[in-house]
Amino acid sequence: MTQRTYSIGEAARLSGISVRKLRFYSDQGLLPPAGRTASGYRVFTDDELVRIDLIRCLRDAGLGLDAIREVLSKELSLVEALKLRLETLEAEIAAQRRVASALRAALRSPQLTEADLRRFLTMTQLSRTERRNVVERFFEKVSDGINIDRKWIRQMIETSVPELPDEPTPEQCDAWIELSQMLSDPTLVANMRANAEDVWNHHVLDLTAWQQANEAVLARAKEIIARGLAPDSEAGQALARDWLETSARLLKREPDLDFRNWIRGKYALHDARAARYWELVAIMRGQSPDASPNREWAWITAAMRHHLSD
């Protein structure tokens, strides 16, 4: 049965969504038209009207365009999408309670300083969702135009979105201030982009295998550090040799001179702020900065640099 066709104006009238917004959804790939007229105007059918209703419902529920795109492409089920949105709403409610606690603390202060006020304003202006948006924008800038696995991006965002307790300490507020400034620094974005492009545009990574290898080398480094051994010790250099071979295998390379030179450059260009990021996240979660694996990675980096200096 041939479906009836509608102009974009008719589709807007029937759906109650403006022509401008329909064009936007279409340009974003959420609402591909059924076709175009000889003059190039978009044509829609009943199928697109149903799709418009779904998009509107998901937008009303607060889902972002990326999540809606995943639902429409079947990468994310509708149930999963709504669960994510519910979790976000519950987090926002908790954030508002946290803001109330921060304001009560400010009002209890006998002498409110400018530094105190800055911390309190930071807490009142940013919800968890807004903090998440800061992190998402950073990773969008880093990954733009690079063939990075979207699942990896999502995992990085989920594990690194800063969490704060209902009544954050001044140190936790300061950690967020430092972190937000760091993520907006174009030089950090440029350094991370260069590293990501060098890896993702030239290699195909098995994410599960890569994560397992990372966990294994971290555990091994932690055990060696506990024995009081230095990165240039025999145990440290054995770890470096094994990690070099493992990295080459996972990147589908040979641990030859070319690979050694390539990975030597990676360690030489390592941005220390990447490690500081995880320290700040740990502080915001009420943990010691040492709770992050930075100590082990710093030790591994030193071991690798010594090994590669030969």
From TrEMBL:
<dbReference type="GO" id="GO:0003700">
    <property type="term" value="F:DNA-binding transcription factor activity"/>
</dbReference>
<dbReference type="InterPro" id="IPR009061">
    <property type="entry name" value="DNA-bd_dom_put_sf"/>
</dbReference>
<feature type="domain" description="HTH merR-type">
    <location>
        <begin position="5"/>
        <end position="74"/>
    </location>
</feature>
<dbReference type="GO" id="GO:0003677">
    <property type="term" value="F:DNA binding"/>
</dbReference>
<keyword id="KW-0175">Coiled coil</keyword>
<keyword id="KW-0238">DNA-binding</keyword>
<protein>
    <submittedName>
        <fullName>DNA-binding transcriptional MerR regulator</fullName>
    </submittedName>
</protein>
<dbReference type="InterPro" id="IPR047057">
    <property type="entry name" value="MerR_fam"/>
</dbReference>
<dbReference type="InterPro" id="IPR000551">
    <property type="entry name" value="MerR-type_HTH_dom"/>
</dbReference>
<feature type="coiled-coil region">
    <location>
        <begin position="72"/>
        <end position="106"/>
    </location>
</feature>
<dbReference type="Pfam" id="PF13411">
    <property type="entry name" value="MerR_1"/>
</dbReference>
